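User: Can you model how magnesium ion sits in this protein?
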Amino acid sequence: MNGIKLLVVDDETDFAAFVAEVAEEMNFEVLSTDNPAEFSTLYSADINIIVLDLFMPATDGIELLRFLYKNKSKASIVFMSGKDKSVLRSAKKLAQEQKMTVLGILQKPFRAEELEKLLLSYVQHSHIQNYDMNEFPSLEELRQALENKDMFLVYQPQINLVSRKVIGVEALIRWKHPVGGEVPASYFIPFAEENDLINDITSFTTKTAIRQMCIWDNNGFDLQMSINFSPKVLDNLDLPEKLAAYVIEMGADISKITIEVTETALMSDVTRYMDILARLRMKGFHLAVDDFGTGHSSLQQLVRAPFSELKIDQMFVRNMDRDQECRTIVEISILLAHKLGMHVVAEGIENENIWNILRDLGCDEGQGYWMSKPMTATGIDRWMTKWSSQQARFQ
Ligand code: C2E
Ligand code: MG
Ligand code: MG
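Assistant: Here's the modeled complex, given as C-alpha cells:
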C-alpha cells in the first residue's frame, strides 16, 4: 500500500470496478460503491482522493460535493461523466470556488492510462498535501517565513515564439516550508490576501525581482521582469509613485517591468483600481491581464484598463493540442488581444506541438514547462546559456 486512500462512487458497477482496479494496481487503498446512498457511510476524513460520477440516479455528484464541503473534506476530487465536457468543467469550477481541490476530470469512456496519470500526479504532489491544510498556514507562520527569509523567488522565462529569443522572466514566489517542502504560491497567496499580509509579500517580491533584474543587467542579460500584483494591493493610491521611485532609485528601467493583475469579485473599489492601473501605465510600467479566459479576468476590464499584454491562462494552453474548445478559446484570445493592440503571452506550453500551434496562430510569447519550469536566479543563468546554444541550430 502506498498509504493513499481512494473512494470511488459510480452507479455503473463496471466503471466503479474499473477505477478500483486501476487504483489497486497502483497500490492505493480503495473503497468502492455503486450506490450513492452509501457515500456518507463510506466517507471518512482521511480519504485522500474521491472519484465521483456526476450523474447518478436519485442523487448527483454536485450533491455529494455539497456533503464534502460541509464536512470540510480535504480530499482531492476527480469528476467523471459520460455527458458533455462542459458539464465536467462547470463541476470543476464549482468545486474550486468552494476551495476544494480538483485533481482532474475524465470523460467516459476513458482509458486506464488517463486515470493513472491523474493518480500519479497526486502521488507526486502528496508530500505537499501531507500536512493539515485547514490549519496551515497560520498567519504567524507566514509572517515568520517572510521575516526568516524562508520565502524566495523563482523565475520562468518568457520567450518569443518566432525568434526564440528570451524576452524576460516572470517572478513567482515560493515558500520553503520546514515540513511541507517547497510550497507553491496558490496555497498561501489567497491566505495572505485575506489577512493583510499581501502588502508585505508584494513588497518583498517587487524589491527582490527588481534587484535581480539589475543583477542580470549588470551581467549582460537584458531581461524584462513580470511581477504579479494581487488586486488587494491595488488599493493604495500612492502605489504608482512609490513603485516608480523605487525603480528609479535602483537605477532600473521602468519600461522593462510588467505588472500582472487579475480581477476578482473581492475588489472593493473598482474606480480606485482603474485609477491606479492608469497611473502605473502613465509612469511607464507595462500592465498585463493575467489568467485571461478564467473567471478572474473579464472582457470589461480588458477595455477599461490600459493593458499592454494579455496572458492566456495555462488551463486552455495546456490542453489545446487535444481539446478543440480550448484551442478555440486560445485562438479568439490572440485575435482579441491583437485587435486591441496588445501583445499576447501564452502560459502552460507543455510540449513542442503546442509551441508550434501557438506560433502559427500568431501568439507572440510563451512560458511553459516544455521550455523551462520556474527556477532560481542561478538556475536561470545556467538555463540561458544552454537555451542560447541550442537555439543556434534554428538560426
Ligand atoms: P500565474 O501568475 O498565472 O503564474 C503562472 C503559473 O503557471 C505558475 O504557477 C507557473 O509555475 C505555472 N506554469 C507555468 N508554465 C506551466 C506549464 O507548462 N504547465 C503547468 N501546469 N503550469 C505552468 P505558480 O508559480 O504555482 O503560481 C500560481 C499563481 O500564484 C500565479 O499564477 C500567481 O497568480 C500567484 N503568484 C505567484 N507568485 C506571486 C507573487 O509573488 N505575488 C502574487 N500576488 N501572486 C503570486
Ligand atoms: Mg502571472
Ligand atoms: Mg496566469
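A couple of observations from the model: Residues 198-218 form the longest helix (21 residues). The pocket of magnesium ion (ligand 3) is lined by residues 290-291, 311, 313, 347 (CB under 6 Å).
User: Helpful, thanks.
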